[in-house]
Amino acid sequence: MIATAHPISDSMTMLRRRLLHLRRYPALTIMLVGQPVLFLLLLVSVFGGTLGNGLGAGVGGRKEYLHFIVPGILVIAVASVAVGTAVAVAMDMTGGIINRFRTMAIAPSAVLTGHVLGSVTQSALAVGVSAAVAVAVGYRSDAGLADAAMATLVLAMLALSLTWLTVAFGLAAKSVESASNLPMVLVLLPFLGSGFVPTDSMPAGLRWFAEHQPFTVVIDALRGLLDGAASSRDVASALAWCTVLAVLGWRLSVGRYARERAG
Amino acid sequence: MQHHAITVRGLCKSFGDQLVLDHLDLEVPAGSIFALLGPNGSGKTTTVNLLTTLLRADAGDIDVAGHDVVTDPAAVRTVIGVTGQFSAVDDLLTGRENLRLVADLEHLPRTTAQARIADLLERFDLVDAADRAASTYSGGMRRRLDLAMTLLGRPRVLFLDEPTTGLDPRSRRQVWDHVRSLVAGGVTVFLTTQYLDEADALADRIALLDAGRLVAEGTPAELKAFVPGGQVRFDFAEPGALAAAAGALADWSAAADVATLTLRIPADATVGTLRRLLTAAEVTDDTRIEVTQPELDDVFFALTEVAR
Question: Is A103 within 8 Å of B82 when comparing Cβ atoms?
Answer without folding.
Answer: yes
